[in-house]
Automatic annotation (TrEMBL):
The keyword Transmembrane applies. Signal peptide: none annotated. It is found in: Cell membrane. Keywords: Cell membrane, Membrane, Phosphotransferase system, Sugar transport, Transmembrane, Transmembrane helix, Transport. Pfam families: EII-Sor. It is a multi-pass membrane protein. This is PTS sugar transporter subunit IIC. The chain crosses the membrane at residues 32-53, 91-119, 139-159, 179-199, 205-235. The lineage of its organism: Bacteria, Bacillati, Bacillota, Bacilli, Lactobacillales.
Length: 276
């Protein structure tokens, strides 16, 4: 019972806390596993499991619809099971991947069932300007959702690792195969959702440039990422220089009184300076 409460509390504070505070990375295996190992009296096992699972889930960052597994829950249960089994890290790690995949599905279902029905309520509170009501509803739903989510490791540890493994083995292969296919499609769906939100015709040329570099020139992703950083720095420097120039022009024009700048934008002031 004590171990179940400890692990459930850690999942609530780390995985749930990461969702509340942003991408603080406190929900990563390299953080959760050693923490549970420390609280359960086996720091060595916690470090071993955390390092191993961080390697497994290193590329897993669930953003929007681009999601595949929940590494935090997997790390918590794998560490606790490994300690229960006397340090059998390899067995616990084998359980971590299916636990992470199923944990993400449960997390999504809870979000839809707990938070989803209150979307219209948030709209009404926002329309009424009730900031206090929005805060109360926000934190209340957060607490309820992650309390329910923390019950998963709580009951999983109560029944034990062997029972949990048997439940996983009872899942039909066709369902696991479907989950595998869905997991492969989710990154593409997630990217499409993110592009729909972020798409801007002014910067679309960079998207096609990246696609061309990767698809036809076979440049590694790391090299493309470095190119993107360089382009971003160059564009940012250009924007900063343009802003400074607009401010200087506006200051000169308003100071000399040559142009009535009231109601004129910085771009209009720049045009006036160019044509004068």
């Amino acid at each position: 019972m004590f171990q179940a409460i400890i692990v459930a509390l850690v999942v609530f504070l780390t995985v749930g806390g990461q969702e509340l505070l942003g991408f603080t990375m406190i929900g990563r295996p390299i953080v959760i596993a050693p923490l549970i190992g420390l609280l359960l009296g086996d720091m060595t096992t916690g470090l071993l499991v955390g390092a191993a699972l961080e390697t497994v889930f290193m590329g897993v960052v669930n953003i929007g619809g681009a999601s595949s597994a929940e590494p935090g829950l997997a790390a918590a249960l794998a560490t606790a099971f490994a300690i229960q089994m006397g340090g059998r890290v390899e067995v616990a790690i084998a359980l971590a991947v299916p636990l992470g995949i199923i944990g993400l599905q449960i997390k999504t279902i809870l979000y839809v069932l707990v938070v989803g029905p209150f979307a219209a309520r948030f709209d009404r509170l926002a329309a009424a300007g009730d900031a206090t009501g929005i805060k109360k509803l926000h934190f209340g739903l957060w607490g309820l959702q992650w309390f329910l989510y923390a019950l998963i490791p709580f009951f999983a540890l109560l029944v034990g690792s062997k029972a949990t493994q048997k439940v996983l083995e009872m899942i039909p292969d066709v369902i696991l195969h479907g989950l595998s296919i869905a997991g492969g499609l989710l990154p593409a769906v997630g990217m499409a959702m993110l592009m729909k939100i972020l798409w801007d015709n002014n910067v679309s040329v960079y998207y096609f440039l990246g696609f061309l570099i990767i698809a036809y020139f076979k440049v590694p992703l790391i090299a493309v990422a470095v190119m993107a950083v360089i382009i971003a720095i160059v564009v940012a420097q250009g924007d900063i220089s343009k802003m400074k120039l607009e401010k200087e022009i506006a200051k000169k024009l308003t100071g000399s009184g040559a142009v009535d700048s009231s109601g004129m934008t910085a771009s209009q002031l720049e045009n006036e300076a160019f044509f004068s």
